[in-house]
Specification:
This protein has a five-stranded antiparallel beta sheet with strand order 2-3-6-4-5, sandwiched between helices. The chain has a four-stranded antiparallel beta sheet with strand order 9-10-8-11. It has a two-stranded antiparallel sheet with strand order 1-7. The protein has two domains: about 130 residues, Impact, N-terminal domain (Ribosomal Protein S5, domain 2); about 70 residues, 2-Layer Sandwich (Alpha-Beta Plaits). It is elongated. A hairpin with a 6-residue loop joins strand 4 and strand 5. The longest helix has 19 residues. It has about 220 residues and is of the alpha+beta class.
Length: about 220
């Protein structure tokens, strides 16, 4: 059943690769790193690897956001800094960026001068903002896949409807009939199915391909 009150998006943005920036505030060094992460395992691996790399630092704080929409999962950690002064500002920077499926880490080397809770929040949040500004981004498309078999005489009609609804052919085989694996964005999927039913008098029935990420 389609949730019309909260329609699924056609895409979201994440990181294409890792990025790093370094800032210095009152002699403390803040090293911010951002990395794409598809799941908790990859997020935690990046965090653990960073802890090993910067083992001589005072704090290794992080925030991550995985997934999109109401199912998005967020996590943060202050790693010994006063509560709410590190992980939450990092996570707030991620939210401001509109990105997901990523983890941001800010490593601190203490410089001997205390920054106070306000100063810490600004430092961690600012470092996270800066690394997300320079990090390469990529758009990830969201939609549904179907297997569709039809006679050769229907090929022009199906292709026209796919183009009209911004769909694409992911795989194609030709034997006694045309066998296509097609993809459509969420926003046009129902419209395509309705148009296909009307154009072929209901004789073509696309078979949904289960999304392994939703199982």
């Amino acid at each position: 059943m389609t949730n019309t009150s909260n329609p699924l998006p056609d895409s979201y943005f994440s990181l294409d690769s890792t990025a790093r920036v370094e800032i210095k505030i009152q002699r403390s060094r803040f090293i911010a790193l951002a990395c794409p992460a598809r799941d908790e395992i990859s997020a935690r691996k990046f965090i653990n690897d960073t802890r090993k790399q910067y083992h001589d630092s005072r704090h290794v704080c992080h925030g991550w956001r995985l997934g999109w929409g109401p199912e998005a999962w967020e996590n943060r950690n202050d790693d010994g800094e006063p509560s709410g002064t590190a992980g939450e500002p990092i996570l707030a920077a991620i939210r401001r960026s509109g990105l997901t499926d990523l983890v941001v880490i800010v490593v601190r080397y203490f410089g001997g001068i205390k920054l106070g809770t306000g100063g810490l929040s600004r430092a961690y949040g600012g470092a996270a903002d800066q690394v997300l500004e320079v990090a390469p981004q990529r758009e990830i498309l969201l939609g549904r896949q179907f297997n569709l078999e039809f006679q050769y005489a229907r090929q022009k009609t199906v292709l026209h409807l796919l183009d009209q609804h911004r769909g694409r052919i992911d795989d194609e085989k030709y034997s006694a009939e045309v066998c296509w694996e097609i993809w459509l964005p969420h926003s046009t999927c129902e419209g395509f199915l309705a148009a296909l039913t009307e154009a072929t008098a209901g004789t073509l029935c696309p078979v949904p391909i289960p999304d392994p990420n939703q199982e």
